[in-house]
Structures are given as structure tokens and as C-alpha cells.
Write a sequence for this structure.
């Protein structure tokens, strides 16, 4: 649970009860993955052609980018902010990861800014709830482990995505990953990216969070998460992220 950690700030510009424009800022909080990952955001239920193409602007560390950020051939609007987060990280000497090993902090954090308008304003009730659907995916043409390769017979790239619990993947995802190894996704019941115990492959925290150190399990670092994940209502220990085992979390 520390492969890619992002801080997200989302602003919706509303007039007469409808969202006309959205602004998103993403800031890298930590990166602990051995494998290389990209980062994107999907707007569930918002058709890709509802994004006003000439309104899109985005930047990386305040430098305007000119290549396309909205992904083609998607039913929903999907934005790919990075195909390889690790290529945009500056690590201290002797560090393999960012802010998952003690002494491997950095004052510099990569930031992305994205802004876009809709072709037709969308009623607030029809908008997906923030933070929308942030996800990571295997960086194309890179190794992502034997288990991931065996499912599709090649390095997975965009075929392998990790979303928040019960968020459906994008059209680029290979559904052969449903049910692979410990995954217990059941698309027929709108259940995605979790195991039989309800533990998810990605999580959203509503505040700043002290994530586990490298090679430390989330359920050991935050013991209350187990009961929270097992309760489909989300009512058990729903503030689990406030009670940690100090020696297992990154606390620089």
C-alpha cells in the first residue's frame, strides 16, 4: 500500500447546479514500488466526448505540457498524467524509493495540474464523487512480475490496472485479471479490486496519512483496517487510518 501515494486536490466550478469545469492537482507523496507504474484518473459515467478538447490544459511541475493527456479509445473520460511515475522522481543518494525508507525523504515532490471543461455542463447529481477514480497501471514495456505476465502472456502495460475498491476499470484493462490469484472481483455484482476478505488493492484516505514503510503490511501497520475491510457497510472502524503501529509507518 505504498507503491504510489498521491495527494489530490479537486475543484469543481458550478453554475446553476451544473459542473462546467474541473481542476485537479496531484502531488506525489511517496513511491515505494519496485515495479514501474503510471498514474491516471477516470471519470466514471462521464463519456469521453463530453470533454471539451480545446479546454484541456495540463502541466508537470508548473511546466505546460503539449502532448495529449486524455486517453483515446475510452468510453469514459480518462486522463493519463504519467506513464511512469518513477521517471519523474528525484531520489536521494543511496535511496531506492521515495518516503518509504527512513532517511529517504525529499523537499521536492512532483506535481501535476490538469484543467478541463465539459461540452455540456453536467448536473452535480450526475457527476462521480471526488476523488473520481484515480488508478495506477503497469508502465508499458516494463517487467511487472511473473504472476502478472502469466495472466496475459506478456508484459502487461496498460492491461494491468489497480483501482479503488468497487471502481470498474477502464477499457484498456484486461479482464483476465479478474479472479487471478487473490482477486475476488465480481463485475456482475459491481465488486472490483478486492480479495475475499474485502481488502482492497488501493485505498482512499480523506486526510494526510502516514503510510507503511517499505515491506510492511498495511494490516500490520493499521490493525483496525482488517475489520473495516470485512464490513461491506463501511461502518466498522471507519477511522482505522488514525490508529497505527508507530514503528511500521513512515513518519519523517
Amino acid at each position: 500500500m505504498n507503491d504510489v501515494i498521491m495527494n489530490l486536490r479537486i475543484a469543481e466550478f458550478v453554475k446553476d447546479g451544473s459542473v462546467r469545469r474541473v481542476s485537479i492537482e496531484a502531488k506525489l507523496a511517496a513511491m515505494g514500488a519496485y515495479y514501474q507504474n503510471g498514474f491516471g484518473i477516470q471519470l466514471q459515467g462521464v463519456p469521453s466526448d463530453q470533454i471539451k478538447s480545446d479546454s484541456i490544459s495540463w502541466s508537470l511541475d508548473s511546466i505546460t505540457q503539449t502532448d495529449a493527456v486524455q486517453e483515446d479509445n475510452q468510453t469514459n473520460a480518462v486522463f493519463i498524467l504519467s506513464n511512469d511515475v518513477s521517471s519523474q522522481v528525484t531520489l536521494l543518494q543511496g535511496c531506492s524509493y521515495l518516503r518509504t525508507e527512513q532517511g529517504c525523504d525529499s523537499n521536492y515532490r512532483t506535481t501535476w495540474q490538469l484543467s478541463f471543461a465539459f461540452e455540456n455542463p453536467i448536473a452535480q447529481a450526475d457527476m462521480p464523487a471526488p476523488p473520481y477514480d484515480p488508478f495506477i497501471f503497469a508502465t508499458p514495456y516494463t517487467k511487472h512480475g511473473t504472476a502478472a505476465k502469466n495472466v496475459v502472456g506478456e508484459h502487461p502495460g496498460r492491461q494491468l490496472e489497480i483501482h479503488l475498491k468497487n471502481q470498474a476499470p477502464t477499457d484498456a484493462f484486461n479482464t483476465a485479471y479478474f479472479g487471478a490469484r487473490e482477486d475476488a472481483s465480481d463485475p456482475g455484482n459491481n465488486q472490483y479490486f478486492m480479495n475475499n476478505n474485502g481488502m482492497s488493492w488501493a485505498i482512499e484516505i480523506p486526510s494526510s496519512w502516514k503510510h507503511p514503510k517499505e515491506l510492511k503490511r498495511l494490516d500490520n501497520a493499521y490493525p483496525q483496517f482488517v475489520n473495516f475491510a470485512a464490513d461491506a457497510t463501511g461502518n466498522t472502524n471507519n477511522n482505522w487510518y488514525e490508529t497505527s503501529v508507530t514503528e511500521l509507518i513512515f513518519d519523517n
Remarks:
- The mean pLDDT is 95.
- The two ends are 17 Å apart (CA to CA).
- The first helix runs from residue 146 to 152.
